[in-house]
Amino acid sequence: xxxxxxxxxxxxxxxxxxxxxxxxxxxxxxxxxxxxxxxxxxxxxxxxxxxxxxxxxxxxxxxxxxxxxxxxxxxxxxxxxxxxxxxxxxxxxxxxxxxxxxxxxxxxxxxxxxxxxxxxxxxxxxxxxxxxxxxxxx
Length: 138
Ligand SMILES: [Zn+2]
Hints:
It is built from 2 helices and 8 strands; from the N terminus they run H-H-E-E-E-E-E-E-E-E. With 138 residues, it is mainly beta. The chain has one domain (6-130). The strands form 2 sheets. The protein has a 5-stranded antiparallel sheet with strand order 6-5-4-7-8, with no helix packed on it. The chain binds zinc ion (ZN).
């Protein structure tokens, strides 16, 4: 018996809408219909109030680098080091563990927007690319 592909192990009725969105390069979040909380990764209930009434909404695709580190050792076959692993805080609030695309240096607090990395198999995954700094107010 062959081992299921990674995505087959993680795609279930709760996560399927997320992966369907990823296939269309749309970053989807769950939003609670009772309290309005946004959450990611997908769960069958709201983390804030426990309600089971959740809907899927498309994220703005923007956020800020909440934390980051640079990986210098090869740990994944199709990722060439060095690359940046980041925790991005989305505009809606949830944080997503991701990569920063390309080799542009980023700092904590930098603005980023979603891009998509295609893989040899499975749906594309959301990565983020830096945005220019906001103009300062005078
Ligand atoms: Zn809720």
